[in-house]
Amino acid sequence: MSTMETDVIVVGSGMAGAAAALKLAKAGKSVTIIEARDRCGGRGFMKPYAGDDGRTVLEYGGAWITPWHDRIRALVEELGLSLRPRHPVTTRQWLRGGEIHTDSSAAREDVTAHERAIARVAVDAILLKKGMAANEKGEALRGISFADYLDRLDCPKSTRDIFSAWWTVSGNGDHQTVAASEFLGSCSYDNGLAEGMIRFWTDTVVPGMGALADRMIEASGAKRILSSPVTRITTTADTVAITCGDTTYRAKACVLALGVNQMKSLEFTPQLSQAKRDAIALGHGGRSFKLWIKAEGVPVGTLVTGEGSGIEFAFAERKAEDGSTLIVAFGLMNAANRPGDAQWVREQASRLFPNARVLSHDWHDWLDDPFARGTWVAALAGHEDGLETENWQPEDRIAFASSDYAREQAGWFEGAVIAGEDAADAVLNLK
Ligand SMILES: Cc1cc2nc3c(=O)[nH]c(=O)nc-3n(C[C@H](O)[C@H](O)[C@H](O)COP(=O)(O)OP(=O)(O)OC[C@H]3O[C@@H](n4cnc5c(N)ncnc54)[C@H](O)[C@@H]3O)c2cc1C
To answer: Which structural domains are found in the chain, ordered by start?
Structure first.
Protein backbone atom coordinates (compact mmCIF):
# COMPACT_ATOMS: atom_id res chain seq x y z
CA MET A 1 0.00 0.00 0.00
CA SER A 2 1.31 3.45 -0.85
CA THR A 3 0.03 6.96 -0.31
CA MET A 4 0.56 10.11 -2.28
CA GLU A 5 0.46 13.83 -1.89
CA THR A 6 -1.97 15.36 -4.35
CA ASP A 7 -4.91 17.68 -3.98
CA VAL A 8 -7.28 15.90 -6.34
CA ILE A 9 -7.34 12.46 -7.94
CA VAL A 10 -9.17 12.25 -11.25
CA VAL A 11 -10.26 8.72 -12.09
CA GLY A 12 -10.53 8.24 -15.85
CA SER A 13 -8.70 10.11 -18.61
CA GLY A 14 -11.49 10.49 -21.17
CA MET A 15 -12.47 13.97 -22.28
CA ALA A 16 -14.34 14.55 -18.98
CA GLY A 17 -11.33 13.60 -16.85
CA ALA A 18 -8.97 15.62 -19.04
CA ALA A 19 -11.21 18.71 -18.82
CA ALA A 20 -11.51 18.37 -15.03
CA ALA A 21 -7.72 18.03 -14.67
CA LEU A 22 -7.09 21.09 -16.82
CA LYS A 23 -9.54 23.28 -14.94
CA LEU A 24 -8.31 22.12 -11.52
CA ALA A 25 -4.68 22.74 -12.52
CA LYS A 26 -5.53 26.22 -13.81
CA ALA A 27 -7.02 26.90 -10.35
CA GLY A 28 -3.72 25.91 -8.74
CA LYS A 29 -4.54 22.36 -7.61
CA SER A 30 -2.14 19.45 -7.94
CA VAL A 31 -3.82 16.62 -9.83
CA THR A 32 -3.15 12.93 -10.35
CA ILE A 33 -5.02 11.00 -13.02
CA ILE A 34 -5.58 7.28 -12.58
CA GLU A 35 -6.55 5.50 -15.79
CA ALA A 36 -7.37 1.83 -16.34
CA ARG A 37 -6.00 1.71 -19.90
CA ASP A 38 -2.48 2.23 -21.18
CA ARG A 39 -3.66 5.32 -23.06
CA CYS A 40 -5.70 8.47 -22.46
CA GLY A 41 -8.86 9.55 -24.27
CA GLY A 42 -11.32 6.79 -23.30
CA ARG A 43 -14.10 6.57 -25.88
CA GLY A 44 -12.09 9.03 -27.96
CA PHE A 45 -9.74 6.51 -29.55
CA MET A 46 -7.50 7.14 -32.54
CA LYS A 47 -5.35 4.37 -33.94
CA PRO A 48 -3.73 3.39 -37.24
CA TYR A 49 -6.09 1.57 -39.60
CA ALA A 50 -5.10 -2.11 -39.69
CA GLY A 51 -5.61 -2.60 -43.42
CA ASP A 52 -3.37 0.26 -44.50
CA ASP A 53 0.03 -0.63 -43.00
CA GLY A 54 -0.78 1.86 -40.28
CA ARG A 55 -0.46 4.87 -42.59
CA THR A 56 -3.91 6.27 -41.83
CA VAL A 57 -4.95 7.16 -38.30
CA LEU A 58 -8.69 6.93 -37.75
CA GLU A 59 -11.17 7.48 -34.94
CA TYR A 60 -12.64 4.21 -33.67
CA GLY A 61 -14.75 5.92 -31.00
CA GLY A 62 -16.23 9.39 -31.25
CA ALA A 63 -15.14 11.64 -34.09
CA TRP A 64 -17.47 14.38 -35.20
CA ILE A 65 -18.09 17.72 -33.56
CA THR A 66 -20.85 20.18 -34.39
CA PRO A 67 -20.70 23.93 -35.10
CA TRP A 68 -21.87 24.71 -31.55
CA HIS A 69 -19.22 22.59 -29.78
CA ASP A 70 -17.37 25.71 -28.65
CA ARG A 71 -15.35 24.17 -25.85
CA ILE A 72 -13.79 21.49 -28.05
CA ARG A 73 -13.10 24.10 -30.73
CA ALA A 74 -11.42 26.41 -28.22
CA LEU A 75 -9.30 23.57 -26.79
CA VAL A 76 -8.21 22.53 -30.29
CA GLU A 77 -7.02 26.06 -30.94
CA GLU A 78 -5.45 26.60 -27.53
CA LEU A 79 -3.51 23.33 -27.68
CA GLY A 80 -2.26 23.63 -31.26
CA LEU A 81 -4.34 20.94 -33.00
CA SER A 82 -6.55 21.44 -36.03
CA LEU A 83 -9.96 20.52 -37.46
CA ARG A 84 -10.77 18.68 -40.66
CA PRO A 85 -14.14 19.52 -42.24
CA ARG A 86 -16.24 16.46 -43.01
CA HIS A 87 -16.75 15.79 -46.69
CA PRO A 88 -20.27 16.87 -47.65
CA VAL A 89 -22.90 14.31 -48.61
CA THR A 90 -22.88 14.51 -52.40
CA THR A 91 -24.85 11.36 -53.24
CA ARG A 92 -27.73 9.93 -51.19
CA GLN A 93 -28.77 6.33 -51.83
CA TRP A 94 -31.25 3.95 -50.21
CA LEU A 95 -31.24 0.16 -50.15
CA ARG A 96 -34.87 -0.88 -50.67
CA GLY A 97 -36.21 -4.26 -51.73
CA GLY A 98 -32.63 -5.50 -52.11
CA GLU A 99 -31.77 -2.81 -54.65
CA ILE A 100 -30.03 0.53 -54.46
CA HIS A 101 -32.31 3.49 -55.22
CA THR A 102 -30.91 6.88 -56.07
CA ASP A 103 -34.10 8.82 -56.81
CA SER A 104 -36.25 8.66 -53.71
CA SER A 105 -36.32 7.18 -50.24
CA ALA A 106 -39.85 5.76 -50.61
CA ALA A 107 -41.63 3.69 -53.24
CA ARG A 108 -44.24 5.67 -55.19
CA GLU A 109 -47.19 3.95 -53.47
CA ASP A 110 -45.71 4.75 -50.04
CA VAL A 111 -44.92 8.42 -50.56
CA THR A 112 -47.94 9.83 -48.70
CA ALA A 113 -47.56 7.59 -45.66
CA HIS A 114 -43.82 8.17 -45.72
CA GLU A 115 -44.18 11.95 -45.70
CA ARG A 116 -46.82 11.79 -42.99
CA ALA A 117 -44.43 9.83 -40.75
CA ILE A 118 -41.59 12.27 -41.41
CA ALA A 119 -43.84 15.18 -40.50
CA ARG A 120 -44.99 13.41 -37.32
CA VAL A 121 -41.39 12.81 -36.24
CA ALA A 122 -40.54 16.44 -36.95
CA VAL A 123 -43.38 17.73 -34.76
CA ASP A 124 -42.58 15.25 -31.96
CA ALA A 125 -38.88 16.19 -32.07
CA ILE A 126 -39.64 19.90 -31.77
CA LEU A 127 -42.13 19.34 -28.93
CA LEU A 128 -39.57 17.22 -27.08
CA LYS A 129 -36.97 19.96 -27.56
CA LYS A 130 -39.42 22.39 -25.99
CA GLY A 131 -39.52 20.15 -22.91
CA MET A 132 -42.88 18.44 -23.59
CA ALA A 133 -43.21 14.83 -22.37
CA ALA A 134 -46.15 14.19 -24.74
CA ASN A 135 -47.29 15.53 -28.11
CA GLU A 136 -50.49 17.48 -28.85
CA LYS A 137 -52.40 14.19 -29.10
CA GLY A 138 -51.27 13.21 -25.60
CA GLU A 139 -48.91 10.54 -26.97
CA ALA A 140 -45.76 10.01 -24.90
CA LEU A 141 -42.44 11.37 -26.14
CA ARG A 142 -40.47 10.20 -23.12
CA GLY A 143 -40.69 6.82 -21.42
CA ILE A 144 -41.46 5.10 -24.72
CA SER A 145 -39.09 2.73 -26.52
CA PHE A 146 -38.04 3.26 -30.11
CA ALA A 147 -39.86 0.05 -31.13
CA ASP A 148 -43.14 1.29 -29.60
CA TYR A 149 -42.64 4.69 -31.16
CA LEU A 150 -42.13 3.15 -34.62
CA ASP A 151 -45.25 1.01 -34.16
CA ARG A 152 -47.21 4.14 -33.23
CA LEU A 153 -46.00 5.87 -36.40
CA ASP A 154 -47.53 3.06 -38.41
CA CYS A 155 -45.38 3.84 -41.44
CA PRO A 156 -44.25 1.79 -44.47
CA LYS A 157 -41.36 -0.63 -43.97
CA SER A 158 -39.02 1.49 -46.07
CA THR A 159 -39.68 4.49 -43.80
CA ARG A 160 -39.06 2.37 -40.69
CA ASP A 161 -35.81 1.21 -42.24
CA ILE A 162 -34.62 4.76 -42.79
CA PHE A 163 -35.46 5.72 -39.20
CA SER A 164 -33.72 2.53 -38.05
CA ALA A 165 -30.58 3.57 -39.96
CA TRP A 166 -30.56 6.99 -38.30
CA TRP A 167 -31.16 5.22 -35.01
CA THR A 168 -27.76 3.47 -35.33
CA VAL A 169 -26.12 6.92 -35.15
CA SER A 170 -28.44 8.37 -32.47
CA GLY A 171 -30.33 6.08 -30.04
CA ASN A 172 -27.90 3.28 -30.99
CA GLY A 173 -29.39 0.51 -28.86
CA ASP A 174 -31.94 -2.26 -28.76
CA HIS A 175 -35.16 -0.91 -30.34
CA GLN A 176 -37.24 -2.58 -27.62
CA THR A 177 -35.48 -1.04 -24.62
CA VAL A 178 -33.82 2.27 -25.53
CA ALA A 179 -35.86 5.48 -25.34
CA ALA A 180 -37.26 6.95 -28.58
CA SER A 181 -36.35 10.37 -27.17
CA GLU A 182 -32.70 9.62 -28.05
CA PHE A 183 -33.72 9.58 -31.72
CA LEU A 184 -36.13 12.52 -31.48
CA GLY A 185 -33.50 14.58 -29.66
CA SER A 186 -31.03 14.06 -32.51
CA CYS A 187 -33.72 14.86 -35.10
CA SER A 188 -34.42 18.13 -33.32
CA TYR A 189 -31.03 19.55 -34.35
CA ASP A 190 -32.42 20.09 -37.84
CA ASN A 191 -36.04 21.06 -37.25
CA GLY A 192 -37.03 17.48 -36.61
CA LEU A 193 -35.57 15.81 -39.68
CA ALA A 194 -33.67 12.56 -39.18
CA GLU A 195 -31.78 13.22 -42.42
CA GLY A 196 -30.52 16.44 -40.86
CA MET A 197 -28.40 14.70 -38.21
CA ILE A 198 -25.37 14.46 -40.45
CA ARG A 199 -25.53 18.12 -41.44
CA PHE A 200 -24.18 19.06 -38.04
CA TRP A 201 -21.30 16.60 -37.88
CA THR A 202 -19.14 19.23 -39.44
CA ASP A 203 -15.56 18.58 -38.25
CA THR A 204 -13.14 16.07 -36.77
CA VAL A 205 -10.07 16.83 -34.68
CA VAL A 206 -6.70 16.17 -36.35
CA PRO A 207 -4.93 13.90 -35.59
CA GLY A 208 -7.65 12.73 -33.20
CA MET A 209 -9.51 13.10 -29.93
CA GLY A 210 -6.93 10.96 -28.14
CA ALA A 211 -4.29 13.55 -29.02
CA LEU A 212 -6.52 16.33 -27.70
CA ALA A 213 -7.01 14.49 -24.38
CA ASP A 214 -3.23 13.93 -24.18
CA ARG A 215 -2.51 17.60 -24.75
CA MET A 216 -5.11 18.68 -22.19
CA ILE A 217 -3.54 16.42 -19.57
CA GLU A 218 -0.04 17.52 -20.54
CA ALA A 219 -1.11 21.17 -20.19
CA SER A 220 -2.59 20.43 -16.76
CA GLY A 221 0.75 19.07 -15.54
CA ALA A 222 -1.20 16.23 -13.90
CA LYS A 223 0.69 13.10 -12.99
CA ARG A 224 -0.68 10.11 -14.94
CA ILE A 225 -0.92 6.63 -13.56
CA LEU A 226 -1.89 4.37 -16.47
CA SER A 227 -2.91 0.70 -16.67
CA SER A 228 -4.41 0.95 -13.17
CA PRO A 229 -8.12 0.05 -12.97
CA VAL A 230 -9.65 1.51 -9.83
CA THR A 231 -11.63 -1.05 -7.84
CA ARG A 232 -12.61 0.73 -4.62
CA ILE A 233 -13.26 4.26 -3.42
CA THR A 234 -13.45 5.01 0.30
CA THR A 235 -14.36 8.45 1.61
CA THR A 236 -13.64 9.69 5.14
CA ALA A 237 -14.28 13.10 6.67
CA ASP A 238 -11.25 14.71 5.02
CA THR A 239 -9.81 12.32 2.41
CA VAL A 240 -10.72 10.00 -0.43
CA ALA A 241 -8.82 6.72 -0.78
CA ILE A 242 -8.69 5.26 -4.29
CA THR A 243 -7.64 1.63 -4.57
CA CYS A 244 -6.19 -0.08 -7.66
CA GLY A 245 -5.13 -3.64 -6.94
CA ASP A 246 -2.96 -3.50 -3.81
CA THR A 247 -2.17 0.18 -4.10
CA THR A 248 -4.19 2.91 -2.45
CA TYR A 249 -3.83 6.57 -3.35
CA ARG A 250 -5.21 9.37 -1.23
CA ALA A 251 -6.26 12.92 -1.93
CA LYS A 252 -8.50 15.61 -0.50
CA ALA A 253 -11.06 15.09 -3.25
CA CYS A 254 -11.79 12.95 -6.28
CA VAL A 255 -13.34 13.60 -9.67
CA LEU A 256 -14.80 10.31 -10.77
CA ALA A 257 -14.75 10.78 -14.53
CA LEU A 258 -16.50 7.55 -15.44
CA GLY A 259 -19.70 6.86 -17.34
CA VAL A 260 -22.55 4.82 -15.86
CA ASN A 261 -21.55 1.52 -17.46
CA GLN A 262 -17.96 1.97 -16.25
CA MET A 263 -18.92 2.29 -12.58
CA LYS A 264 -20.54 -1.15 -12.38
CA SER A 265 -17.49 -2.89 -10.94
CA LEU A 266 -16.51 -0.23 -8.40
CA GLU A 267 -17.09 -0.57 -4.66
CA PHE A 268 -17.90 2.57 -2.71
CA THR A 269 -17.63 3.12 1.06
CA PRO A 270 -19.93 4.66 2.11
CA GLN A 271 -22.30 3.47 -0.63
CA LEU A 272 -23.50 5.94 -3.22
CA SER A 273 -27.07 7.26 -3.06
CA GLN A 274 -29.78 4.79 -4.00
CA ALA A 275 -30.62 6.82 -7.13
CA LYS A 276 -27.03 6.61 -8.39
CA ARG A 277 -26.84 2.89 -7.58
CA ASP A 278 -30.05 2.29 -9.51
CA ALA A 279 -28.75 4.21 -12.52
CA ILE A 280 -25.45 2.27 -12.45
CA ALA A 281 -27.27 -1.07 -12.13
CA LEU A 282 -29.44 -0.23 -15.16
CA GLY A 283 -26.60 1.36 -17.14
CA HIS A 284 -27.17 2.80 -20.58
CA GLY A 285 -28.04 0.89 -23.73
CA GLY A 286 -25.63 2.40 -26.31
CA ARG A 287 -24.44 -0.51 -28.48
CA SER A 288 -23.86 0.43 -32.07
CA PHE A 289 -20.84 -0.88 -33.89
CA LYS A 290 -18.74 1.53 -35.88
CA LEU A 291 -16.62 0.12 -38.70
CA TRP A 292 -14.06 1.55 -41.05
CA ILE A 293 -14.18 -0.18 -44.43
CA LYS A 294 -11.63 0.34 -47.18
CA ALA A 295 -13.04 -0.14 -50.66
CA GLU A 296 -12.45 0.71 -54.28
CA GLY A 297 -15.17 2.00 -56.57
CA VAL A 298 -17.04 4.15 -54.02
CA PRO A 299 -17.16 7.91 -54.60
CA VAL A 300 -16.37 9.92 -51.48
CA GLY A 301 -19.49 11.72 -50.24
CA THR A 302 -21.88 8.80 -50.85
CA LEU A 303 -24.34 8.13 -48.02
CA VAL A 304 -26.32 4.89 -48.10
CA THR A 305 -28.89 3.64 -45.60
CA GLY A 306 -29.94 0.01 -45.36
CA GLU A 307 -32.94 -2.20 -44.77
CA GLY A 308 -33.25 -2.36 -40.99
CA SER A 309 -30.56 -4.98 -40.29
CA GLY A 310 -26.82 -5.57 -40.63
CA ILE A 311 -24.89 -2.47 -41.63
CA GLU A 312 -27.62 0.17 -41.73
CA PHE A 313 -25.71 3.38 -42.24
CA ALA A 314 -22.59 3.89 -44.39
CA PHE A 315 -20.87 7.08 -45.42
CA ALA A 316 -17.89 7.20 -47.79
CA GLU A 317 -15.95 9.72 -45.75
CA ARG A 318 -12.59 10.19 -47.37
CA LYS A 319 -9.84 8.92 -49.60
CA ALA A 320 -7.06 6.75 -48.23
CA GLU A 321 -3.49 7.50 -49.31
CA ASP A 322 -3.62 4.77 -51.97
CA GLY A 323 -6.67 6.35 -53.61
CA SER A 324 -9.24 3.88 -52.28
CA THR A 325 -12.17 5.10 -50.17
CA LEU A 326 -12.61 4.89 -46.40
CA ILE A 327 -16.23 4.24 -45.47
CA VAL A 328 -17.51 4.72 -41.95
CA ALA A 329 -20.38 2.34 -41.21
CA PHE A 330 -22.77 1.69 -38.34
CA GLY A 331 -25.19 -1.01 -37.24
CA LEU A 332 -26.39 -2.50 -33.97
CA MET A 333 -24.53 -5.11 -31.96
CA ASN A 334 -26.88 -8.10 -31.78
CA ALA A 335 -26.86 -11.85 -32.30
CA ALA A 336 -27.35 -11.53 -36.08
CA ASN A 337 -24.54 -9.05 -36.79
CA ARG A 338 -20.87 -10.03 -36.98
CA PRO A 339 -18.87 -6.82 -37.36
CA GLY A 340 -15.60 -8.59 -36.52
CA ASP A 341 -16.03 -11.10 -39.37
CA ALA A 342 -14.39 -9.96 -42.63
CA GLN A 343 -16.66 -12.11 -44.81
CA TRP A 344 -19.82 -10.77 -43.16
CA VAL A 345 -18.61 -7.16 -43.50
CA ARG A 346 -17.76 -7.76 -47.17
CA GLU A 347 -21.27 -9.14 -47.84
CA GLN A 348 -22.93 -6.28 -46.01
CA ALA A 349 -20.84 -3.60 -47.69
CA SER A 350 -21.49 -5.16 -51.10
CA ARG A 351 -25.24 -4.82 -50.57
CA LEU A 352 -24.88 -1.11 -49.85
CA PHE A 353 -22.21 -0.47 -52.49
CA PRO A 354 -22.83 -3.06 -55.24
CA ASN A 355 -20.04 -1.70 -57.44
CA ALA A 356 -17.44 -1.67 -54.71
CA ARG A 357 -14.47 -3.93 -54.19
CA VAL A 358 -14.11 -4.22 -50.44
CA LEU A 359 -10.45 -4.46 -49.44
CA SER A 360 -10.44 -4.63 -45.64
CA HIS A 361 -12.06 -3.35 -42.47
CA ASP A 362 -11.15 -2.44 -38.91
CA TRP A 363 -13.08 -1.57 -35.74
CA HIS A 364 -13.08 -1.57 -31.96
CA ASP A 365 -15.55 -3.65 -29.96
CA TRP A 366 -16.82 -1.17 -27.36
CA LEU A 367 -19.25 -3.62 -25.79
CA ASP A 368 -16.55 -6.16 -25.08
CA ASP A 369 -14.22 -3.45 -23.79
CA PRO A 370 -14.20 -3.76 -19.96
CA PHE A 371 -13.42 -0.05 -19.55
CA ALA A 372 -16.28 1.13 -21.76
CA ARG A 373 -19.04 -1.55 -21.78
CA GLY A 374 -20.96 0.37 -24.38
CA THR A 375 -20.73 3.21 -26.88
CA TRP A 376 -22.24 6.66 -26.44
CA VAL A 377 -24.98 7.14 -23.89
CA ALA A 378 -28.49 5.88 -24.70
CA ALA A 379 -31.12 6.10 -21.95
CA LEU A 380 -33.41 3.14 -21.41
CA ALA A 381 -37.09 3.93 -21.94
CA GLY A 382 -38.77 4.82 -18.64
CA HIS A 383 -35.42 5.39 -16.94
CA GLU A 384 -34.33 8.62 -18.58
CA ASP A 385 -34.23 10.41 -15.18
CA GLY A 386 -31.37 8.28 -13.88
CA LEU A 387 -29.06 9.93 -16.42
CA GLU A 388 -30.17 13.47 -15.66
CA THR A 389 -27.42 15.68 -14.21
CA GLU A 390 -29.51 16.25 -11.05
CA ASN A 391 -28.87 12.59 -10.20
CA TRP A 392 -25.11 13.04 -10.48
CA GLN A 393 -24.47 15.75 -7.92
CA PRO A 394 -21.31 15.36 -5.77
CA GLU A 395 -21.36 13.03 -2.75
CA ASP A 396 -18.98 13.73 0.15
CA ARG A 397 -15.58 14.38 -1.48
CA ILE A 398 -16.43 12.85 -4.86
CA ALA A 399 -17.62 14.85 -7.87
CA PHE A 400 -18.90 12.94 -10.91
CA ALA A 401 -18.08 13.76 -14.52
CA SER A 402 -19.06 12.07 -17.75
CA SER A 403 -20.65 12.88 -21.02
CA ASP A 404 -23.22 10.20 -20.09
CA TYR A 405 -24.91 12.54 -17.60
CA ALA A 406 -23.70 15.99 -18.66
CA ARG A 407 -26.12 18.90 -18.13
CA GLU A 408 -25.75 19.84 -21.81
CA GLN A 409 -24.65 17.97 -24.93
CA ALA A 410 -24.81 14.59 -23.18
CA GLY A 411 -23.39 11.84 -25.37
CA TRP A 412 -20.97 14.18 -27.12
CA PHE A 413 -17.34 15.06 -26.39
CA GLU A 414 -18.58 18.58 -25.73
CA GLY A 415 -20.81 17.18 -22.97
CA ALA A 416 -17.82 15.39 -21.46
CA VAL A 417 -15.87 18.67 -21.29
CA ILE A 418 -18.86 20.46 -19.73
CA ALA A 419 -19.25 17.67 -17.15
CA GLY A 420 -15.52 17.68 -16.39
CA GLU A 421 -15.45 21.44 -15.85
CA ASP A 422 -18.59 21.30 -13.66
CA ALA A 423 -16.99 18.58 -11.52
CA ALA A 424 -13.81 20.66 -11.18
CA ASP A 425 -15.92 23.60 -9.97
CA ALA A 426 -17.66 21.34 -7.45
CA VAL A 427 -14.29 20.20 -6.08
CA LEU A 428 -13.00 23.77 -5.93
CA ASN A 429 -16.06 24.69 -3.85
CA LEU A 430 -15.45 21.90 -1.31
CA LYS A 431 -14.51 23.11 2.16
C1 LIG B 1 -18.28 4.42 -31.59
C2 LIG B 1 -18.51 5.75 -30.95
C3 LIG B 1 -18.84 6.85 -31.72
C4 LIG B 1 -19.04 8.09 -31.14
N5 LIG B 1 -19.26 9.19 -31.93
C6 LIG B 1 -19.19 10.44 -31.38
C7 LIG B 1 -19.08 11.59 -32.20
O8 LIG B 1 -19.03 11.48 -33.43
N9 LIG B 1 -19.03 12.81 -31.59
C10 LIG B 1 -19.02 12.94 -30.23
O11 LIG B 1 -18.95 14.08 -29.73
N12 LIG B 1 -19.10 11.86 -29.43
C13 LIG B 1 -19.15 10.61 -29.98
N14 LIG B 1 -19.12 9.51 -29.19
C15 LIG B 1 -19.26 9.70 -27.74
C16 LIG B 1 -17.97 10.17 -27.06
O17 LIG B 1 -16.91 9.35 -27.46
C18 LIG B 1 -18.20 10.08 -25.56
O19 LIG B 1 -19.34 10.81 -25.20
C20 LIG B 1 -17.04 10.64 -24.77
O21 LIG B 1 -15.81 10.16 -25.24
C22 LIG B 1 -17.20 10.24 -23.31
O23 LIG B 1 -16.19 10.84 -22.55
P24 LIG B 1 -16.13 10.54 -21.00
O25 LIG B 1 -14.88 11.19 -20.51
O26 LIG B 1 -17.41 10.88 -20.37
O27 LIG B 1 -15.99 8.94 -20.89
P28 LIG B 1 -14.83 8.00 -21.43
O29 LIG B 1 -14.24 8.54 -22.67
O30 LIG B 1 -15.39 6.64 -21.51
O31 LIG B 1 -13.72 8.09 -20.30
C32 LIG B 1 -13.74 7.29 -19.14
C33 LIG B 1 -12.31 6.84 -18.87
O34 LIG B 1 -12.31 6.08 -17.66
C35 LIG B 1 -11.49 4.93 -17.84
N36 LIG B 1 -11.92 3.91 -16.90
C37 LIG B 1 -12.99 3.07 -16.99
N38 LIG B 1 -13.07 2.31 -15.89
C39 LIG B 1 -12.02 2.67 -15.09
C40 LIG B 1 -11.57 2.24 -13.81
N41 LIG B 1 -12.19 1.28 -13.11
N42 LIG B 1 -10.45 2.82 -13.29
C43 LIG B 1 -9.78 3.82 -13.97
N44 LIG B 1 -10.18 4.26 -15.17
C45 LIG B 1 -11.30 3.70 -15.72
C46 LIG B 1 -11.71 4.56 -19.28
O47 LIG B 1 -10.65 3.74 -19.75
C48 LIG B 1 -11.76 5.92 -19.95
O49 LIG B 1 -10.47 6.36 -20.33
C50 LIG B 1 -18.94 8.24 -29.74
C51 LIG B 1 -18.62 7.13 -28.95
C52 LIG B 1 -18.39 5.90 -29.54
C53 LIG B 1 -18.00 4.74 -28.68
So the answer is: 8-42+208-284+371-428 (3.50.50.60), 46-88+287-363 (no CATH), 108-200 (no CATH)
